């Protein structure tokens, strides 16, 4: 089931900036999309607007081309997993899962045995086959998460909306449950929209990542595209550790303000003027020093090993710049004449210009 | 049972600091304030001999008064449940202007001297009162009947239901309703299947408190009840009447039965509440 969000506007009285500022988004059938951004960016607001839980002032939300009016129109078509799961505390796990079927009008409600079979099937799918009679207060976070998911899927919705579903889980459970979730999405042929503030999580599970900031979509692209061509300095910063070097472009060369940065050439079409170079720590290099020119102005100090990279810190002017080298690159010189940041992206007034 | 009690006592000094001291203080305190007077009440009726007690129990006026008290208290508490639920709902969820004032007003019946509320209600519902006159034209008499007793008990019992339900309702996450609606529940299904069941233990507690207060209520009832023996005389009033007649055996007999039945009802309410709240017990 495809989801089409068209020029959605949501304002709150008293607040200057709208919560959602003309947000448009198209999610084709079967895609897994992650909404990422800092707190207050409007991710959850957008998700709730898609589900019809909050009113919006203008714009439309369509499922498979049909414009949805109220939350009732979406019932059964959209499965929603709340951040704190919102399980009904007084119902057993099985009753929770069956809720969406139990509330159907008598004419369309499947017979008891069929509901029970569906519950058993979902419990199996969630890998919690023995928990049917337990009450939510006795479950662990990961189990509650699965029950919430099973409840959302019971009516066979085409769209699954997840609001920070991994927030309350410990790191190991988090990792296993997100690969499992991606697998579930593929098996059931769902269209999934996931809200998360963890960019790594988004990069791992999603086909497409939508970065939001201040109620707007800043960039909507594949993880690959996002990593290579971030649209703004914010996206670059948000997707992972980045170091920025302010400076200016002149005659096809970028000159950073810091002395210890080697100027590098940029495409000739780039107009002269101020610009900021941003680079990931693992893309930084050292320019080797000529053997006879005295002590090196730039030297890297070891800062431990993480995730296959040796971490170093390089003193550049008054600040310390992180600098990562892949483990397998042995025998690399740790001193040099200058830092090589020629793999940096250039931004002017916050927007990519390279 | 016995074993677990001793196990509980032996735990002293293991995990909780000052456990022995606090337990001792609690037992002494509760003993002097609650258990001691109740024991005295249990012992007193038999002081004039078993024969006097048995004679005092052969009193149909007393049983009529007890029946009036218990049935009126139960009806009033039951009527307070829906009103209390709605009030608690409005307080916890509504964004009404002046909510703080309504909040304070609800507790006012607890602070008001009961005689004041009794006289006020009697005046309002009297044959010429603001509410009594229009009601009597409709053929409904409230004052000096059992209906008057129920009205007075509803007045004093309402805060108990509201205050028992409100905090639970406030803690009920709003997304339960949203989840139910998204799963296709219609509004009445959201109320009956998602909102009311988690509130039931609190509702039963509120009912029990309002009922207990209603059974013991004296001041606000006697002005509106008319106090006719066998018809609208409540048990607490009968105790006072017996005392004025220097019939101490009769007075304590009423008190004893009042006490025993109230205890039984409260035990029943407690077990019902536990049964309804089974789901909330952690593993």
UniProtKB/TrEMBL annotation, chain A:
UniProt keyword terms in alphabetical order:
ATP-binding, Nucleotide-binding, Transport
* Pfam families reported in the protein's UniProt record: ABC_tran (PF00005)
Q: Where does the record place the ABC transporter domain?
A: 3-239
UniProt cross-references to PROSITE patterns, sorted A to Z: ABC_TRANSPORTER_1, ABC_TRANSPORTER_2
For this protein, what is any one GO molecular function term?
Answer: ATP binding
Which SMART domains does UniProt cross-reference here?
AAA
The biological processes this protein is annotated with in GO are:
quaternary ammonium group transport
Q: Does the keyword ATP-binding apply?
A: yes
| The keyword Endoplasmic reticulum appears for this protein | no
Q: Which SUPFAM superfamilies match?
A: P-loop containing nucleoside triphosphate hydrolases (SSF52540)
Protein name, entry field:
ATP-binding cassette domain-containing protein
> Source species, please?
Acetobacter garciniae
TrEMBL record, chain B:
Tell me the InterPro entries matching this sequence: CysT_permease, MetI-like, MetI-like_sf, Sulph_transpt2
Coiled-coil stretches noted in the UniProt entry, renumbered to this chain:
none
**One Pfam entry name:** BPD_transp_1
Q: Does the keyword Membrane apply?
A: yes
Highest taxon listed in the record's lineage: Bacteria
Query: GO molecular-function annotation terms?
Result: ABC-type sulfate transporter activity
- State the compartments where it is located: Cell membrane
Q: Recite the UniProt keywords alphabetically.
A: Membrane, Sulfate transport, Transmembrane, Transmembrane helix, Transport
Q: Record's Gene Ontology CC terms?
A: plasma membrane
Q: Does the keyword Membrane apply?
A: yes
- What does the subunit section of this Swiss-Prot or TrEMBL entry state? The complex is composed of two ATP-binding proteins (CysA), two transmembrane proteins (CysT and CysW) and a solute-binding protein (CysP).
Q: What does this protein do?
A: Part of the ABC transporter complex (TC 3.A.1.6.1) involved in sulfate/thiosulfate import. Part of the ABC transporter complex CysAWTP (TC 3.A.1.6.1) involved in sulfate/thiosulfate import. Probably responsible for the translocation of the substrate across the membrane.
For this chain, the family text in UniProt reads:
Belongs to the binding-protein-dependent transport system permease family. CysTW subfamily.
The protein's name: Sulfate transport system permease protein CysT
Organism of provenance: Acetobacter garciniae
């Amino acid at each position: 089931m495809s989801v089409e969000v068209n020029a959605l506007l949501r304002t709150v009285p008293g607040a200057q900036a709208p919560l959602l500022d003309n947000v448009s988004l198209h999610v084709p059938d079967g895609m897994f999309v992650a909404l990422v951004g800092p707190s207050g960016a409007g991710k959850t607001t957008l998700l709730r607007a898609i589900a019809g839980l909050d009113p919006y002032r203008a714009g439309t939300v369509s499922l498979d081309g049909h414009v949805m009016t109220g939350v009732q129109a979406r019932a059964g078509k959209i499965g929603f997993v709340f951040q704190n799961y919102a399980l009904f505390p007084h119902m057993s796990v099985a009753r929770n899962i069956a809720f969406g079927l139990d509330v159907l009008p008598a004419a369309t409600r499947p017979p008891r045995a069929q509901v029970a079979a569906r519950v058993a099937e979902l419990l199996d799918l969630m890998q919690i086959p023995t928990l049917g009679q337990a009450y939510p207060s006795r479950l662990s976070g990961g189990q509650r998460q699965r029950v919430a998911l099973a409840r959302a899927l019971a009516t066979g919705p085409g769209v699954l909306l997840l609001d920070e579903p991994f927030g309350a889980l410990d790191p190991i459970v988090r990792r296993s449950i997100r690969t499992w979730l991606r697998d579930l999405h593929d098996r059931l042929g769902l269209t999934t929209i996931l809200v998360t503030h963890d960019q790594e999580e988004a990069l791992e599970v999603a086909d497409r990542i939508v970065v939001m900031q201040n109620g707007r979509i800043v960039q909507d692209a594949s993880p690959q595209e996002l990593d290579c061509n971030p649209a703004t300095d914010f996206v670059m910063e948000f997707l992972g550790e980045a170091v920025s070097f302010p400076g200016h472009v002149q005659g096809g060369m970028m000159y950073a303000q810091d002395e210890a940065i080697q100027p590098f050439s940029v495409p000739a079409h780039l107009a002269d003027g101020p610009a900021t170079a941003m680079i990931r720590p693992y893309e930084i290099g050292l320019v080797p020093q000529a053997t006879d020119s005295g002590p090196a102005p730039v030297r890297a100090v070891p800062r431990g090993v993480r995730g296959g990279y040796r971490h170093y810190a390089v003193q550049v002017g008054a600040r310390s710049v992180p600098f990562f080298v892949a483990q397998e690159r042995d025998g690399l010189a740790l001193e040099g004449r200058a830092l090589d940041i020629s793999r940096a992206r250039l931004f002017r007034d916050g927007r990519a210009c390279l | 049972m016995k074993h677990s009690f001793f196990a509980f006592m032996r735990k002293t000094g293991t995990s909780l600091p000052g456990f022995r001291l606090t337990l001792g203080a609690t037992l002494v305190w509760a003993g002097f304030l609650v258990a001691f007077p109740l024991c005295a009440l249990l012992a007193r009726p038999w002081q004039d001999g078993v024969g006097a007690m048995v004679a005092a129990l052969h009193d149909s006026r007393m049983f009529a008064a007890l029946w009036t008290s218990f049935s009126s208290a139960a009806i009033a508490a039951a009527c307070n449940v829906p009103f209390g639920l709605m009030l608690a709902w409005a307080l916890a969820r509504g964004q009404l202007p002046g909510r703080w004032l309504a909040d304070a007003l609800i507790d006012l019946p607890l602070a008001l001297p009961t005689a004041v509320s009794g006289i006020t209600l009697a005046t309002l519902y009297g044959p010429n009162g603001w509410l009594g006159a229009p009601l009597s034209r409709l053929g409904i008499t409230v004052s000096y009947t059992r209906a008057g007793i129920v009205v007075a008990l509803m007045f004093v019992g309402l805060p108990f239901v509201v205050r028992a339900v409100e905090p639970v309702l406030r803690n009920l996450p709003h997304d339960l309703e949203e989840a139910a609606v998204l799963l296709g529940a219609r509004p009445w299904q959201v109320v009956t299947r998602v909102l009311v069941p988690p509130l039931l233990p609190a509702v039963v507690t509120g009912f029990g408190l309002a009922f207990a207060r209603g059974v013991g209520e004296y001041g606000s009832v006697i002005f509106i009840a008319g106090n006719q023996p066998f018809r609208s005389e409540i048990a607490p009033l009968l105790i006072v009447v017996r005392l004025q007649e220097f019939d101490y055996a009769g007075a304590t007999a009423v008190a004893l039965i009042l006490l025993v039945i109230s205890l039984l009802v409260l035990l029943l309410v407690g077990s019902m509440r536990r049964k309804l709240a089974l789901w909330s017990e952690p593993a």
